[in-house]
Amino acid sequence: MSHSSPTLAPSPTLSLATLNGASEDGFISLLDGVYEHSPWIAQRAFAVRPAGGFASLAALKHAMATVVREAALDEQLGLIRAHPELAGKAMVAKSLTAESTNEQSQAGLTSCTPEEFARLQQLNADYNARFGWPFILAVRGPRGDGLSRQQIIDTFARRLNGHPDIERAECLRNIHRIAEIRLNDKFGIVPTLGNQVWDWAESLARFSDPGFAENGQLTVLYLTEAHRAAAAQLADWMRECGFDEVGIDAVGNVVGVYHGEADGQTEEPPRLLTGSHYDTVRNGGKYDGRLGILVPMACVRELKRQGRRLKHGIEVIGFSEEEGQRYKATFLGSSALVGRFDPAWLDQADADGVVLRDLMRDAGLPGTMEAIQALKRDPARYLGFVEVHIEQGPVLNELDLPLGIVTSINGSLRYVGEVRGLASHAGTTPMDRRRDAAAAVAELILYVEERAGAVPEVVGTVGQLQVPNGSINVIPGRCRFSLDLRATTDAARDALDADVRARLAEICERRGVSFTLERTEAAAAAPSDAAWQSRWESAVDALGLPVHRMPSGAGHDAMKLHQAMPQAMLFQRGLNLGISHNPLEAISNDDTELCVQAFLALLDGL
Ligand SMILES: [Zn+2]
Which residues of 402-431 are buried (b: 16+ CB within 10 A; e: fewer)? Predict the structure, then answer.
């Protein structure tokens, strides 16, 4: 399998000005090879080139992705089929395009072991048989410097099980990623800010709790050894970035301050507060929370490098706890900042009986309410709070958008309930004489789906469903269920809640069964502050990207800060269908570059 890999013909560095000034033929030929054997994409992108030209490379990438998304199904399939198999016959016969040859050899596919090569051939055959097109993977990966052969084989095997519609879309997104990297090469662009953040996140993930670390999994629970090591690492990096003050506070938050011009004078202008959490769920991802610490760190590093001070100081916080994994409390870090740290939490014990107060003291923290209450911030000293976070959902991915602007963090209500009917013989009980508890809940589930689906602002889910002691030949006498209702406004949430509860009562009445419903959680919606939301919008617009507004379905630290000051969030697209709380969580260096640029633009606009 060893042969010398042909190198790409050296191409002159392309500029956006050249592309924007080119004729249609010139435009198409300048973009030749970006999308494999598919000049129609450049042709249609030319047709939508704005009068003043594309505002940025990101705008061009988005225009081409939009062309593909809006193309006919057979055109999309044609684009996918224009690609060679990975380590396939064309690679062996050296008949790939220069771009593909470069990518496949960089990924080490030209030097597979015989076993790896055989495995890839089998995967190629199985994949083609299942989907009817070749498996497409951007083998240069999310950092642009190449996936390992094992990563490629693992991804291949995983995606073989996908639904064809989802897999087709995933192939197209990988094609856009391939095009993005090829464009970067053509333009001579290296996303250095994005790479910095990506590398920090990768490095920070080396700290993981015992029981998970051994298996290569990432778990960082509150105040474990790995948690404290991660905090120390963040603090070190903040100092290297050039923050003026760096410390770890009484709840384990890492706090870095980069002073504004006027700092040190008697009247310090209010600071911008930003940050997110560095704890993780069990076997979580590397970017949830952490991205929101690392992106503003990269901004401060950039300001320091340029010798710049803003009028306002920036305070970046790595919140110590958000996920509620170790104690029956969430947002331990951000609660302290808004004076909502419940004193009763200090007496809570974790699953191993470790009391929070003792844990804090063992970690070298005071473990007293006095010290924790001292962390409360005076809102008058802050402009507001902004938070960058991965989307943790599929929306931006589907729209081929790197960034989205959060309009509101959803309010939520959670319940656990049980319907009680009559467990009776599945053979002898006629259909019109049954009191089937599970059928009643099934009806409720379908109603939640219909009601929540009818308006855009709400979502509803029955995530747990259980027939206690159920039997194959017994009509369910009991059925337990959970209910999770969320909405962008409290009014929409409460309207959904009222309708769902009324329907449950009606279903149970009609079916002659009874029910209990216990509310376990209620969180108010946190709409974004209009001024801060529009600052994010201007920042994204300045990058030449469409402004996409969306609610946040998940809760975030910004929800807590919302109780004290104006807040707004920026979402970055996650790869792998936006999956999160999962090791497959991923971001690209190019998206992250845009995210840092957007944050810098926001700072510039202050
Ligand atoms: Zn998070």
Answer: bbbbbbbbbbbbbbebbbbbbbbeeeebee
